[in-house]
Amino acid sequence: MRVLAAADIHGVLSVFQWLVAQAHSADALVLAGDLFDADFAEGQRKQAQAIARILHDSVVPVLHIMGNDDNLPLDREDELIKPLHGHRVEMGDYNFVGYQYTPPFVGEVREGRQRDRNGSAFL
């Protein structure tokens, strides 16, 4: 299986357009978080609509998971565009699963931080 994967696009629509244009050489396009810029709710809602329109032109399935800068979901799910959070997507012999970043857990063990014996946090 050939996977085209990207993360940390932060709302740059030309990058989404480029990925969709390149997707013909892959079996799946996987977007691994931080799809939007660091703007909040209303700006991200508009970005989500524009990104979903771009992704809908993909010739391969698009799997996505939201990141720590994504304060709302992409909010598009159909036969082509599928969220991975809490889902397993089977593609032939392969399974894709995901868990998105969740703001209430910022800096906790779930986000890769651990504590040493003195209580200091480190990655």
Summary of the model, kept short:
The chain has 123 residues and is α/β, with parallel strands linked by helices. It has helices at 13-22, 41-55, and strands spanning 3-6, 28-32, 62-65, 81-83, 88-91, 94-97, 114-115, 121-122.
Description of the structure:
The chain has 123 residues and is α/β, with parallel strands linked by helices. It has a single domain, classed as Purple Acid Phosphatase, chain A, domain 2. It has two helices and eight strands, in the order βαβαββββββ. It has helices at 13-22, 41-55; strands spanning 3-6, 28-32, 62-65, 81-83, 88-91, 94-97, 114-115, 121-122. The strands form three sheets. The chain has a four-stranded parallel sheet with strand order 1-2-3-4, covered by helices on one side. It has a two-stranded antiparallel sheet with strand order 5-6. A two-stranded antiparallel sheet has the order 7-8. The radius of gyration is 16 Å and the shape is globular. Residues 105-116 have low confidence and may be disordered.
List keywords for this structure.
123 residues; alpha/beta; Purple Acid Phosphatase, chain A, domain 2; 2 helices; 8 strands; 20% helix
Q: Helicity, in percent?
A: 10-25%
Largest sheet: 4 strands, parallel
What number is the mean pLDDT? 83
Fold-level CATH name: Purple Acid Phosphatase, chain A, domain 2
CATH class: Alpha Beta
CATH superfamily label? Metallo-dependent phosphatases
Low-confidence stretches: 105-116
**Assembly type:** single chain
What is the helix/strand order? EHEHEEEEEE
Overall spatial form = globular
State the secondary-structure class.
alpha/beta
Number of domains: 1
CATH architecture annotation name:
4-Layer Sandwich
Bin the strand percentage.
15-25%
Give the tally of β-strands: 8
